Amino acid sequence: MENPSSSSTIEKLQQDCYNEWMSLQAKRMTELKQALSNDEKEDDKLRDLIRTVIGEFKDYAAKRCEHSRRYSSNYFAPTWNTCLENSLLWIGGCRPSSFIRLVYAMCGSQTELRLNTFLRTNNIDDLSTVLHGETRGGIDGGGESMSDLTAEQLYKINELHLKTVEEENKLTIRSASLQEDTADMPIAVTAFYKEVIGEADVAVERALDKHEKDMAGLLAEADKLRLTTLTTIVDILTPVQAADFLLAGKKLHMSIHAWGRLREQSRLEASGGGNSGGEVAGE
Amino acid sequence: MENPSSSSTIEKLQQDCYNEWMSLQAKRMTELKQALSNDEKEDDKLRDLIRTVIGEFKDYAAKRCEHSRRYSSNYFAPTWNTCLENSLLWIGGCRPSSFIRLVYAMCGSQTELRLNTFLRTNNIDDLSTVLHGETRGGIDGGGESMSDLTAEQLYKINELHLKTVEEENKLTIRSASLQEDTADMPIAVTAFYKEVIGEADVAVERALDKHEKDMAGLLAEADKLRLTTLTTIVDILTPVQAADFLLAGKKLHMSIHAWGRLREQSRLEASGGGNSGGEVAGE
To answer: In this predicted model, what pLDDT tens digit does every residue of A187-202 receive, in sequence order?
Structure first.
């Protein structure tokens, strides 16, 4: 990384794929917002859009899988991410269980909003809204559908949570095992007997190629779990809720990226360096 | 990371600290090698050197702790690492259990070496060496002490292994929980209600500051576990074994860094770009 301005063809491919994905997220974010603000909230149109969004995630995972087959290391701390994002990574992406955490966060914040409205106005109609979520559209910005989750939906989400954490743990253990393998034969032992540090070695090259291939397999498994978790949540939710949830996920991803850059820019400016910073906000 | 050539004061401090650490590792590597190749193998001198090496790891961890207090994100996928190294990271460093894996690897490879010597020469004296490790210095490059591990030592190493994995798991769970918190209030909910993606927000800034502080605490805990594991291994081993083990650890760390750069350089050259590559080997 001493010369990060030069990147290999494969890294450029990986980065282009990421940039396309981020542009697509911005586009779908706008579409989801429009579809939700449409008073009619036509379920068929929403369902189509949700299917498209999920399908695109699947395509993105397939492309990552293709690009990581030989060179997977880049995906475990991509240079195109901010360091904040990289500190949040789990096997090359977000934790699948954080999707569920987001469902709960949206549900909780909406109930809180309604409760606050009731306490402020002391209007018995608002209490009914708090308890049963009978009306929609009373709060600006959408997302209100998420406090309408039924007991059955919450039960299913909880079931999914337990299953997801279990699957995550399995992949975490496999990841640990692959990482530890590099402290074993042949890599550690070859390193010990080499007179010159970093001298090229066929056995080591082969072992590192295998390591990157195994890590690519793990990345594909993690993406599969992310996709399954996302699909299952969307299936549990109503179309309006699913659209609110997908919108929240996209906004969260894009915001963390932007806030991470803003923090890096602030530190740079505090050090007396840096650019104009105009590219940071509102991307 | 769009403009990685500019880095903040704190990142420069962190990187300088890492560069100093790597230079120190190279220096101690040479000293350990010299001390081990000295036929007298004076235990007192070895003990002093081992104490120094462990003390320096402690100092390095203290400096990282100091530098990560406000800005810890950089440590979870440092820009000064190769992407290979970053794909092997566990909470800002190597897995403590990989130290133990290295003990086993060195022990296994030495026994194998001795067995091969016996099979090649069919000399009954060599068999005695295989079984009891009675002689030293017969194999070039050191490390032979590692096959002399007694049953008691192996028992203690195994006990340490179980305890280390347990502690690692606890920290892994805490790390997962801190990562997931960013998909909750206030960050996720604020992201949802912002009209402009990445617009500065006091509550989010405060939450991200807290997040980085908590992650810094986790990094300190992980460094503490790395240090405890290292110290316990060294206490279980004889001075010669401990010096062989520390030498193997340093060589592995430096080699992975150099091999990672070599692989990045190869990919760059395969893409038709890159530098002379002269800086890669033999650093």
So the answer is: 999 999 999 999 999 9
**How many folded domains does chain A comprise?**
1
With a CB cutoff of 8 Å and minimum separation 6, the contacts of B183 are A94, A98, A99, A101, A102, A105, A252
Q: Cα separation of B134 and A24, whole Å?
A: 67
Residue A147 DSSP one-character state: G
pTM higher than the cut 0.95: no
How far the first Cα of chain B sits from its last, in Å, is: 26
Unique residue bearing structure tokens 């939450």:
B207
| Per-residue 3-state assignment (H helix, E strand, C coil) for B99-121 | HHHHHHHHHHHHHHHHHHHHHHH
| DSSP letter, residue A90 | B
Task: Please list, in sequence order, all residues whose beta carbon lies within 8 angstroms of the beta carbon of residue A150, skipping any fewer than 6 positions away.
Answer: none
At position B177, the amino acid (one-letter code) is S
CA distance A65 to A221: 10
Whether the pLDDT of residue A117 is over 50: the answer is yes
CA–CA gap between residue A91 and residue A167 (Å, rounded): 13
Chain B residues 27-66 with CB within 8 Å of chain A: none
Instruction: Chain A: give the shortest CA distance to residue B131, in Å.
Output: 21
Question: CB of B187 within 8 A of CB of B208?
Answer: yes
ipTM, interface predicted TM-score of the complex: 0.86
What's the rounded Cα separation, in Å, for the pair B41 and B153?
Answer: 21
Residue B279 carries which DSSP code? Answer: T
Question: Across chain B, where does the E strand assignment appear?
Answer: none
Cα–Cα distances (Å) from B23 to A128, B28, B150, B161, B283, in that order, read 68, 9, 34, 30, 10
Are the Cβ atoms of B86 and A95 closer than 8 angstroms? no
Q: Are A4 and B4 a contacting pair at CB < 8 A?
A: yes
Domain that includes residue A176, residue range: 9-270
